Amino acid sequence: MGQGAVQATVDETPAFLGTEATDSLPEACGVAEDAKERGSEPSQPSLRRYSVHLLEHGAAELLRTCFCPWANLRDILYADAVCKRWHQLSREEQWMEMSILHGGVTASLRRALWRHLSAVQNIEQRYQRELGVASAREAFEALLKKPLSQAKISEIERDVHRTYPSHERFEGQEGAKGRAELQEVLQATVIAEPNVGYCQGMNFVAATLLIHLGSASDAFWMLLALLESYHYKFVFAPGVPLLPLRVFQFAGVVQRCLPRLWRHLREDGHSLEIFAHQCVLTLFSYSLECRLAGISGGPADISHHLHQCKKHLRLPRHNGQLGPAAFRVLLRFDVGLGSLEELESGFQLQRLEVLLSQVSVPGEHDAQVPAVDEPLPAGLERSSSRNCFLVDGNSLRSENLPPRGGTVVGSPSTLLNQAGTKEALHVNLAELKELKVELLQFDEQTQFDVKEFRRRIAEADKELLGLLRSSAEFRMEVEDAESAWKNKQAYRKALMDAVQVAVDSARPSEPMEAAPQELVADCREKLQRLQIEILEDERRRQARLAEFNELCEDIAELKEVKQRSMLQLQSFLELRDQQRQGRLKNAVAQLMPLAPVDLN
Amino acid sequence: MIGEEDYDHLYKLVLVGDATVGKTHILSRYIKGTLPKAPTATIGVEFATRTVSLDAGCAVKAQIWDTAGQERYRAITSAHYRRAVGALLVYDITKPATFKSCQRWMEELRSNAEPDIVIMLVGNKVDLAEKNPGDRQVDFDAAADFASQQGLLFEEASAVTGANIKLCFDKLLKEIYNTTQHRRDREDDPTNNFQLQGRSSQTECAC
Question: Is A163 on the interface with B (CB under 8 A)?
């Protein structure tokens, strides 16, 4: 399966994709032998082939994108074939609507796709070896024959009656068989994973699997695959250790992708976490009709299920159908692996901060020291000796990526393995204190530097204020000078008029000419003086104007200095914040050293 | 009839107790007046609200949180108790183990919720004992004794017949109103408690 195959399908849809027979697998693919070589089930040649093909070409990522839950497998294959046009396609609401109305993956394909994606075969084979039986069904039956305490059986019984009680498979007298199967699936699960035991929520997942997979045996193995391969055993184990992290991730995704919903809940004083518990615990089967829960392409990838919270998001509906507006909402659910991992480390930091808030060090404000026995969040405990905290490692990290179908090789393990036992990390109180002291010093230094920055800014501000004040004085002076100049001009005009009048009225024949002569001379003299004054004023005004311009330049310069200082402060704060985060991240690695996730 | 948004006080209540004692049924009976059509196990937490008027002339909005009863959730559900001022602690009168657990539930409540949380102990499923007296496994008197020792309110009720359900909530809300009112008065003026009490309840409840 090389690039050629991709090329070949770019331009034309493979023949089988165009057929209407959605429930029967196409046989005309001619890849059965190819598939056999890969060790896949011969009954699903084309599916196996195309799944492998999808995985090989990075389309697993595509499967995890928001389109997948709604897409028909045919659509996925087709989309893969036209990978280059994918983004364009995904924006076409009509296309999205089509795939959702088609009902997602068809029943027979769903089973095969789920099996493939969850690598359930490896688990089945492992159990078959350990129990010495030939088939998965026999292994399931052998497990059921193992003893189980009555208390555990009745704990399950209690909920079997309360799982989809109105679904035809479990309702009334006809539902007796379905209920018995559900009981069997859950009992076998408790036997296989005794450390996990039965957890409410499992019943909804098991029932959904029963509805979609048909047989109790298949449902059981798929549930086991969820527990093992997708870390769900840590979600369900006593104390539900992984639940807070999953919920944190869920809430983080919603906060980013649906900020309006997030804010709305915040304004009402609720946090999304509260509502997210049941979504995570039941893989959304609790809040969606179980028929819809089966639409998803793969059963367990969390990012899949993040997309499925339709009911909780109150997606806009049109005539009872999800309308284009709903698709726009879903399209925003762009959950990549990267963001899940980022949220995971965010969660670890948050947990470390909780621990830090629990220790007090000298020099700290007393008000910050909490009550001694304030309850700690799940996954954190005080040790009895009180010199350290116990952190459940399983509550801090998880596999965010589903197993790559076919590549997970089951390692030999004891049948009743230790899943669900606590991985206790001891976080030393002394070390926490040390870190806190260090952080306090760091913060103090930051505060000191910030103060220095602020001082410089304040100085610039003060100087600026002085300059602005003198510039205001300048402006007034200029205005004054202007009005003085106007006055003088008016005076000058009046004088000139007077001289003119005197000259005009003085006739040469007139004997009394001495007096006006004197008057004219006087006026002329005044006029001359005035002229000089005006010139002087003008010179002075120009000089002041030059000064004023200089002042304006100074002001602009100071403003720039201030601006620069403020930017510097900002980037300084960002840098310090980064350094602090980095220090905390190191501390997480140091104080809570987590073994790498090992799914096998 | 009081409008949903027309209220003087908002009280957060929690419904706790072992699995299958009938917490969700009690909530449904109180809020909707009927039992859930398809009773399913509660996962995580759900909540509902109802606004009622008290004798004092005040309207209070009860925000009731229904929690999952299974033991392994406790670390998670106890986080929901924060800021709760009242609780309905439910047991099943036909199952003594559910009554025994009440002690633990109470401790859980007291350490996670408001320190002066008002707790109402409810013995559910009296309808079963009425039908068949042999089904009763927890004595009324024993439960009443326990309640008075621990300073809890106490009623027996039946979500199936609806008996005493409204009474339980009304008594609880009234008691919460009284305690919070007292506290508010104390905070207002510790020296002149008596006079203020009359005035503040008048001014705050101008409804």
Answer: yes
Q: Nearest-CA residue of chain A relative to B40?
A: A162
Establish if B132 belongs to a structural domain: yes
Specify if B3 maps to a domain. Answer: no
In this predicted structure, which of A78-82, A156-160, A544-548, B120-124 has the lowest mean pLDDT? A78-82
B81 domain residue, yes or no: yes
As a whole number of angstroms, the distance between CA A383 and CA A388 comes to 6
Strand, helix or coil at B146?
helix
Q: Which of B20, B35, B73 to mutate to test the interface with A (most CBs of A within 10 A)?
A: B73
Contact B70 A162 (CB under 8 A): no
d(CA A457, CA B102): 62
**Does B70 lie at the interface with A, CB-CB under 8 angstroms?**
yes
Q: Is the pLDDT of residue A328 over 50?
A: no
DSSP-assigned states of every residue in B49-80: EEEEE-TTS-EEEEEEEEE---GGGHHHHGGG
Cβ neighbours around A556 below 10 Å, total: 10
Q: How many domains does chain B have?
A: 1
Q: Does residue A290 have a pLDDT over 50?
A: no
CATH code, B118: 3.40.50.300
| Alpha carbon distance B131, A371 (integer Å) | 50
Is B63 at the interface with chain A, CB within 8 A? no
Containing structural domain, residue B80: 9-181
Q: Are A74-295 and A430-505+514-591 the same fold in CATH?
A: no
Question: Domains of chain A: which residue ranges?
Answer: 74-295, 430-505+514-591
For residue B46, the chain A residue with the least C-alpha distance is A275
Determine contact: B110 vs chain A, CB below 8 A.
no
**CATH fold group of domain A430-505+514-591:** Helix Hairpins (1.10.287)
CATH topology of domain A74-295: Helicase, Ruva Protein; domain 3 (1.10.8)
Q: Is the CB of B200 inside 8 Å of chain A's CB atoms?
A: no
Is the confidence at residue A66, as pLDDT, over 50? Answer: no
ipTM for this prediction:
0.81
Task: Give the tens place of pLDDT for each residue, A141-199.
Answer: 999 999 999 999 999 999 998 888 888 888 888 889 999 999 999 999 999 999 899 99
Q: For A140, phi and psi rounded to 5 degrees? A: -60, -45
Residue B199's pLDDT is what? 38
Cβ atoms B168, B17 nearer than 8 A:
no
User: B187 lies in a domain?
Assistant: no
Are A210 and A169 within 8 A, CB to CB? yes
β strands within chain B, DSSP E = 9-16, 45-53, 59-67, 86-92, 118-124, 153-156
Tokens of A514: 């001495």
Query: Using CA atoms in the order A310, A313, A314, A320, what is the torsion angle rounded to 10 degrees?
Result: -20
What single-letter amino acid sits at A575?
Answer: L
Confidence of residue B151 (pLDDT cuts 50, 70, 90): very high
pTM above 0.90, yes or no: no
